[in-house]
Amino acid sequence: MRWRFVALSALAVVCAGLELVAGRGMSPGAVWDVLGGGGDATERHILLQLRLPRMLVALGAGACLAMAGLILQSALRNPLAGPEVTGVTPGAVLGAVTATALGLAGWESPLAVVLAACAGGCAGALLLWLLVGRGGGDPAQTAVHGVLVSAVLGGLTAMVLLVEPGELGSVVQWLVGTTEGRVWEHWHLLWPWAMVWGVAAWLLTGPLTLLRCGDDIAMSAGLSVRRARTLALMCAVALTAGAVAAVGALGFVGLLVPHLALAVFGADLRVGLPGAALLGAIVVCGADAAAQLSSRALAATLDSGRLTLPVGALTACLGAALLLVVVRRTPSRTF
Fold first, then answer.
1. What is the pTM of this model?
2. For residue 333, what is the enclosing H or E element?
3. What percentage of residues in the chain have a pLDDT greater than 70?
């Protein structure tokens, strides 16, 4: 297991390096010059003030979404439970967009965005809980109601756009998910938030492991199921809100990365949760590097210097394809 962490850590370093050299405006040689202490003022600004915080935000947001997905799937005993399909991500997007439209938050005040996203994520999770009720342990019912809740919250977000059409740019960024334009302020807010809630989630890995075995087994072991599930969902909502406030709604990361983490690290969540965080960071950072390289190739092919492919579009397309493969290969997957 230790060597798996070492190998994945090395892969994360490779993805981070690709992220730094993938963008436009600097050649890979110029990047290495700046890292070695050289380069002119413009190159140092591009690398140290734009590319480096963008890379760190991608790593942190990916880790948050992956941990949130694993927590949700374990607490609800549902392999289809993820921030994207349980109302948490759409609710966080709605909260952030609404606060921005009301003038209470914005990119210049990321803390207000995080608080608004947390409130929206809690509202989305609460709405799903009210609809599912006692059938919350049924995977199919939870998935269906999660899609309905996400559709309702997405419709409310569209209504906010109709009321405040000037917020189109913010809505698109949060709905699609992008790391473009992220600066040190976003990172300084994201990393302590992710660390606090990540540690809190790790402290709950014992109860989460029992919850995955079923409520009856958990109660027979002396666990307060209601309290443990509530605390776990709070951690998942907070982690999702932090990621959404930083990069928007990146699709399928919180849904599929937990499955990969369980396959690589096993069912022990004391190992699986940090492993999921590492895998999520790799996936988002690697996807962002691939999106930047694709943007450069498309811009050169179409002769359009302003063409940019957001990382959220790439994760959504690849995630949908992988989900189809998983469902077809394991149609009766349960915990």
1. 0.88
2. none
3. 88
